[in-house]
Specification:
single chain; about 375 residues; alpha+beta; Double Stranded RNA Binding Domain; 2 domains; eight-stranded antiparallel β-sheet; six-stranded antiparallel β-barrel
């Protein structure tokens, strides 16, 4: 596959995302015979104190041929988000199969996004010089954008590039390894950026240990995901009309009474539950639904490396799910996490943050099976 062909394929898979408050980039995929746009969390909900709720029909996609569609559903997967499109509005034939892979050190990558400082899409090349590629994020060096992208300029450009796919091609096949997420240094140059890998889609290997198994899938097994590419046409066959928005009524069985002995864990799990359609209740006498109890234990050990004190934190997050009608415990499990830092606070925060995201996804998956 030539570089021109790689860029043309990526062009047809890349969309600009607009919400009432955010702009970003996404990648068009098909999952279980349904079309989705894959992007990162803050392209939809914003960041930190500026996070906000968004309805599916407020999320607009602009394709390379200027066709426009709107989301019909939002599925939050931690730092990743899947945005469903009505499959009646997309031609889903003649797919090109794209595999998923973990990021590899020193490989050439291709990226296409919509920088806020430009009025059109832009192609980038990148390399990964991050040897810690087994984590949920990785760092790459992007090139060829403009001559002045440091400091505030870099931040302005980055706003629209978040959510862009990080691709490479080999032996005639196209691979996706992650999505652009944020500047590596908010006061530094543009070319150093953090990316989110695909572990939250569970299509590549992850090393987080659960009570029953390691969540592991072959890096090159697609699990039914294909990118949409119409080889017989130079345009994606999407009409520029807004599809009928599907709404799903939340049943009373989706009410949740949540408790946790750590506020940050509570906040992360409750965020994932509400974004997945569950209703958090404050009623202690809830008559229908589930009660979830979360607890955590932390252990820390300090060591000295080249005169630097390194603190290693291991955290054990466990949960139990009870049916409030029968009072029976219907599920219990746990997540173990490990992180290191230069202080106890830094190390503990990273360990709890990453483990809380994994815990929230596991709880949401189990509750969907029950409903």
């Amino acid at each position: 596959m030539t570089e021109k062909e790689i860029k043309e394929n990526i062009k047809q898979l890349t969309v600009q995302i607009e919400t009432p408050n955010e702009k970003g980039t996404g990648v068009l995929i098909s999952y279980k015979s349904r079309p989705y746009i894959l992007t990162v969390h803050h392209c939809i909900y914003g960041k930190g104190a500026n996070e906000h709720q968004v309805d599916a029909d407020d999320v607009k996609f602009i394709f390379y041929n200027r066709a426009e569609l709107y989301a019909v559903d939002i599925i939050s997967l931690g730092s990743l988000v899947l945005l469903e499109i009505d499959k009646k509005d997309l031609s889903m034939h003649n797919f090109i199969r794209v595999n998923f892979s973990n990021v590899e050190y020193e490989r050439d990558y291709f990226i296409r996004g919509f920088p806020s400082g430009l009025d059109k899409a832009h192609n980038f090349k990148a390399k990964c010089n991050d040897d810690a590629v087994d984590k949920k994020t990785f760092k790459i060096d992007m090139s060829n954008i403009t001559n002045d992208t440091s400091g505030d300029d870099a931040i302005d450009y980055m706003k629209g590039v978040s959510g862009s796919g990080v691709f490479y091609a080999t032996k005639g096949k196209l691979y996706l390894v992650g999505l652009v997420n944020a500047l590596a240094n908010q006061s530094g140059t543009f070319n150093a950026v953090h990316c989110t890998n695909l572990k939250e889609l569970k299509v590549v290997a992850t090393r987080v240990k659960t009570s029953k198994y390691y969540l592991f899938a072959s890096p090159f097994v697609v699990l039914g995901l294909f990118f949409l590419w119409d080889k017989d046409s130079t345009e994606i066959t999407t009409p520029s009309v807004k599809p009928i928005i599907k709404t799903q009524k939340i049943s009373s069985s989706k009410e949740i009474l949540l408790s946790a002995n750590n506020q940050d864990i509570y906040d992360e799990v409750s965020r994932q539950l509400t974004q997945s359609g569950f209703i958090l209740s404050s009623k202690e006498d809830l008559t229908n639904g589930y009660k979830i109890e979360i607890s955590n234990k932390i252990r820390q050990k300090s060591s000295t490396v080249y005169d630097n004190t390194i603190v290693k934190t291991t955290c054990h997050l466990s949960f139990s799910i009870f049916d409030v009608v029968t009072k029976n415990k219907i599920q219990s499990d746990f997540i173990d996490g490990v992180a290191s830092g230069f202080s106890k606070e830094e190390s503990a925060e990273e360990c709890l943050n990453e483990s809380s995201k994994e815990l929230g996804m596991k709880i949401v998956d189990l509750l969907y099976l029950k409903n």
